[in-house]
Amino acid sequence: MDEQATDILAQLARLRADDAPTHGGRVLSYVYDSGLAELDELARAAAASVQSVNGLDPTAFPSVARMEADVIDFAVGLTHGHRRDTPVAGLVTSGGTESCLLAAKSARDRWHARGGEGTPVIVAPVTVHAAFHKAAHYFGLELDLIPVDDGGVVAVGDIVTRLTPQTALVVVSAPCYPFAVLDPISAIAAAAAERGIACHVDACIGGWVLPFWEDGENPLPPWDFRVDGVSSISLDAHKYGYAPKGASVLLFADPDAKRAAAFATTQWPGYPVVNPTMLGSRSAMSLAAAWAVIAYLDRNGFGELTARCRQATRVLQDCVAGIDGLRVVGRPVGPLFAVTADSAVPEDHRVDPHIWADRVRELGWVLQPQPGLGQTSGVVLPRTTHLTVTPVTADDLDDLTAALRSAADDVRGTPPVDLTELLSAIPELAVDDVLDTADAQRILGTLGLDSGSGPGSALPDQLAPVMALLDVIPPRRAEALLTELLARLNER
Ligand SMILES: *Cc1c(COP(=O)(O)O)cnc(C)c1O
Predict the structure, then answer these.
(1) What is the location of CATH 3.40.640.10 in the chain?
(2) Distance set, CA 166 to CA 101, 134, 136, 186, 233 (Å)
(3) Do 449 and 492 contact (CB within 8 A), yes or no?
(4) What is residue 459's DSSP assignment?
(5) Cis before 391? omega within 30
(6) What separation in Å is there between the alpha carbon of 426 and the centre of ligand 1?
(7) Which of 21, 217, 261, 456 is a Cys-bridge partner for 106, taking CB atoms 3.0 to 4.6 Å apart?
(8) CATH number of 47-293
(9) What atom in ligand 1 is closest to the CA of residue 98?
(10) 129 C-alpha to center of ligand 1: Å?
């Protein structure tokens, strides 16, 4: 490597110095660290070996189709797809969002092909991943969100009564991201099948870990292709598949449904376009990395890593259950869970989950705050803090549990941040509408959230006030302000 290249890499290393640590288990969301250095090395080498390949055309680069076939076959095995009479067919996508988008696109097009007219509808519990909000928004579907109880559980009957001839897709999660609830998949899939409606199981986060989660004592209800009526499943290799970002799998029980996810056109003067997924030209790097990681770990490796996650999850849930003023939300399944204030204890014993997360962060661990949510049923889902547990979490459990406990001791009794009076001080905040850039910047400035544009402009250390802001501002205004905040980050 010449001097200039060395210099450039040194610059990159300096940029990376400000990033949250991707290894070591200090960040309990976003990153999935197996703790196996050799696995990272392997993924890096595999990705580098296909650096110049264009996944757009597997006829020119047959290695792409072969690696995809292997990754899909492994995922079919994880989800008991080999048991189906018709072979399960799959796609490798760039991530969970793309898998969810394509599941919705396929269902929409099949609904239209069956004679559906007007606006097709996706029916799903309110806990369904936001990727389905995005799918509805991008693809012109309506999203009918069904309220859940305060443990995140949806009543089967509440879903079933919403199924109409307009319904193109029902989505259930295995488990859902916010609270790790395993939806009542069998009953909902059966009701959907009876009505000829597609049923997608979003196992983006659970798909690579639930197959190894059971320990004999606690059998899980079936959530995959063992369940009649399940028509598609998404599972992200870049989560508990321990692959670098950029790899997810979308499986279809019916090969026609996979074809309906594709886009093809010969009606332009260029090469015939056939895109089974959303991108055109695409990197094969994350595919090759995922392929190599899967081959290396195989079922045994995944089983061992899952056992570490399970052990750590249990310790952490017990720890939270033992902290006065906090509780685990509902009955989580898998290596993730949410924590909220325990409203059963007097107010001066309660621990606000966001203020707690900020304090835990000061102690060196990054948890993820989640907003509360009012539902049409009147049941308000509480503000929570999310923990995603990975195998490395098991390495440092004493330190982490000590931090969780002492952070709670430090902030117990501190009332939640209440910004309702801010609304009267800044009336523009209360308008539920979009904003132009100039107005959005001005409002952020008033809130002290415009720390100057451009790279390096710091987001606030304390997230509790920001989350409290989102609690009181109407959604469209909040979304506009967040969009502005993010947009400014790479503008000079
Ligand atoms: C992560 C996740 C997604 C979205 O996946 P990305 O890879 O972040 O795009 C969808 N559904 C569930 C349940 C998830 O956990």
Answers:
(1) 47-293
(2) 19, 19, 14, 22, 22
(3) no
(4) P
(5) no
(6) 35
(7) 261
(8) 3.40.640.10
(9) 9
(10) 7
Residue nearest to atom 6 of ligand 1 (CA): 96
Mean pLDDT by 10-residue block, N- to C-terminus, for the chain (492 residues)?
Answer: 96 95 92 96 98 94 98 98 94 98 98 97 98 98 98 98 98 98 98 98 98 85 97 98 98 98 97 96 98 98 97 98 98 98 97 97 96 96 97 95 98 91 86 89 86 56 88 91 92 89
Burial 231-265 (b: 16+ CB within 10 A, else e): bbbbbbbbbbbbbbbbbbbbbbbbeebbebbeeee
Q: Using alpha carbons, list the distances in angstroms from residue 103 to 91, 113, 160, 262, 384.
A: 10, 15, 20, 10, 29
- Residue 130 C-alpha to ligand 1 middle, in angstroms? 8
> What is the CA(236)–ligand 1 centre distance, in A?
7
Ligand 1 centroid to Cα of residue 413, in Å, is: 34
Residues with C-beta less than 6 Å from any ligand 1 atom: 95-97, 100, 129, 131, 173, 177, 202, 204-205, 236, 248
How many angstroms is it from 209 CA to the middle of ligand 1? 14
Long-range contacts of 456-460 (CB under 8 A, 24+ apart): 456/18, 457/488, 457/489, 459/485
Nearest-CA residue for atom 15 of ligand 1: 205
* Segment (H or E) for 37: helix 37-49
- Selection from 381, 384, 380, 334 nearest residue 357 by Cα: 384
Taking the complete model, does pTM exceed 0.90, yes or no? yes
Q: Collapsing DSSP states into helix, strand and coil, what is residue 208?
A: coil
- As a whole number of angstroms, the distance between CA 345 and CA 24 comes to 35
Q: Write the single-letter amino acid at 200.
A: H
Q: Are 103 and 96 in contact (CB under 8 A)?
A: no
Nearest ligand 1 atom, CA 236: 7
